[in-house]
Amino acid sequence: MAKLFTPYTIRGVEFKNRIVMAPMCMYSSHHLDGMVEDWHKIHYATRAVGQVGLIIVEATAVQPEGRISDRDLGIWSDDHVEGLSEIVRLMKQHGAKTGIQLAHAGRKATVDEDIYAPSAVRFNEQYKTPVEMSLTDIRETVEAFKDAAVRAKKAGFDVIEIHAAHGYLINQFLSPLANKRKDAYGGPSENRYRILREVIDSVRSVWNGPLFVRISAEDYQDGGMTTTHYIEMVNWMKTQGVDLIDVSSGAVVPAKIDAYPGYQVPFADQIRKESGIATGAVGLITTGLQAEEILKNERADVVLLARELLRNPYWAYTAAKELGVAIEPPKQYDRGWVF
């Protein structure tokens, strides 16, 4: 049996295979209020029909000022729970496990109101200069992640992922390229990690299920974070009850990235081997053979696909055929999947 199609279990939650849909913003909340719309219901349910084992819903803002755009999904209000519950129901109906990425964009938010970051340094000329967060702002944001976790639980999600990657708020605190603070949240690595420590602890206080953290393992700029630097922080995450590190890279500062098939897999491999924590590999993974090589050689525990699942929501069937594995389609599609 191809390892890609073997089950994987975390904290008693079993994924039927090791195919994970990475969170991808849909920019489809038409009323600027973070609500689930028809597009989300169709989009996510289709990937469940396509036999993805775990679907992680896009970066979902824990505070309105933390939206990447004003079209993003939100989870800062109890009013969001009903719509999120509906997409969970639709995904689970077709056998997928469900996750949600809790996020705050920090200085990369593009909303009309003030935006916030560890330091008053903008990302580039196209972005606004953020307000440097006060200690009260930080406490309120940590509490917002906790409240969002409570709502995610009410909505029925199986997995929570904390977004600490791609140059968004938590990543901004972790990287010395964006964090210029002189207080307890800046300077040495333990201080820069402090907000993520507090977010993990606050989420764990209300959430007993699988907990992932997405990181950007490389900043691609001198003086920035590298995979080796992250090992220390990942070891801290492990002691706090994080189950899996979703390993991406880049985007905390503008940088040139040499992207090629599987270019981020070595980061996941190194973190897995040196910290002993489960990892997810992501980044231009497009074929079943490629995914199988990553898993068979124990370079990661699951593979996350993004754009490939936009192009082909039924990628799992294509990969199964490529690897000589028979997977059972929905009864309605039987005649289309007889090879």
Structure description:
This protein is an alpha/beta fold. 34% of the residues lie in helices and 16% in strands. The chain has helices spanning 38-49, 81-92, 135-155, 169-174, 189-204, 227-239, 265-275, 288-296, 307-311, 315-323; strands at residues 8-10, 13-15, 19-21, 54-61, 97-103, 116-117, 131-132, 159-164, 211-216, 244-248, 278-282, 302-305. Helix 3 (135-155) packs parallel to helix 5 (189-204). The longest helix has 21 residues, at 135-155. The radius of gyration is 19 Å and the shape is globular.
Euclidean distance between termini CA atoms: 18 Å
Count of helical stretches: 10
Largest sheet: 8 strands, parallel, barrel
| Number of strand elements | 12
Question: Roughly what is the average pLDDT, rounded to an integer?
Answer: 96
* Widest sheet, order of strands: 3-4-5-8-9-10-11-12
Query: Uncertain segments of ≥5 residues (pLDDT<50)?
Result: none
Radius of gyration: 19 Å
How much helicity do the residues have? 25-40%
Assembly type: single chain
Give helix and strand order, one letter per element, not per position: EEEHEHEEEHEHHEHEHEHEHH
Structural class: alpha/beta
Strand content: 15-25%
Globally, the shape reads globular
Summary?
The protein is α/β, with parallel strands linked by helices. It has helices at 38-49, 81-92, 135-155, 169-174, 189-204, 227-239, 265-275, 288-296, 307-311, 315-323, and strands at 8-10, 13-15, 19-21, 54-61, 97-103, 116-117, 131-132, 159-164, 211-216, 244-248, 278-282, 302-305.
